[in-house]
Design goal:
5 helices, two-stranded antiparallel sheet, Arc Repressor Mutant, subunit A, single chain, mainly alpha, 133 residues
Length: 133
């Protein structure tokens, strides 16, 4: 079993800090969407997760679930049945992260229209040859 890290001052802005790789891995869109799906819908099988997160390929789903499991956020449970049934669920660390991510998703869903409009206005200005600010 891994030993917990001593109380270190982690800094995601430091190039060589381990927290930078943790941040980069967790900030992946598939990881966050899977985390939220498991948080909101509870334990799910692989095929259920693939249906709940539109657009994720089998390969990316497999890689993301392994990454989340490795990071201690997701638990993979194999039920000894014929055929074997595998379900994925969140561990306490995963639930804690999902609670922090939900407000970001709420902001995105509420403000996506404004962001899209800003992008379109930006693109129109730059297509017309307007100087960048």
């Amino acid at each position: 079993m891994a030993t917990p890290q001593p109380d270190l001052a982690f800094d995601v802005f430091a190039a060589v800090c381990p927290s930078r790789t943790v941040f980069a891995e967790l900030a992946d869109k598939w990881n966050l969407l899977l985390l939220l799906s498991l948080h909101q819908r509870g334990e799910q099988r692989f095929s259920e997760l693939q249906r709940s997160v539109g657009g994720v390929s089998r390969k990316m789903l497999t890689q993301s679930l392994r990454s989340l499991e490795r990071d201690g956020l997701v638990r993979r449970t194999v039920h000894p049945e014929t055929p074997p049934r595998v379900v994925y669920g969140l561990l306490p660390l995963g639930h804690a992260l999902a609670l922090k991510v939900e407000p970001i998703v709420e902001w995105v869903e509420n403000c996506a229209g404004e962001v899209v409009a800003a992008r379109e206005a930006f693109d129109e200005r730059h297509e017309a040859g307007a100087p960048a600010l």
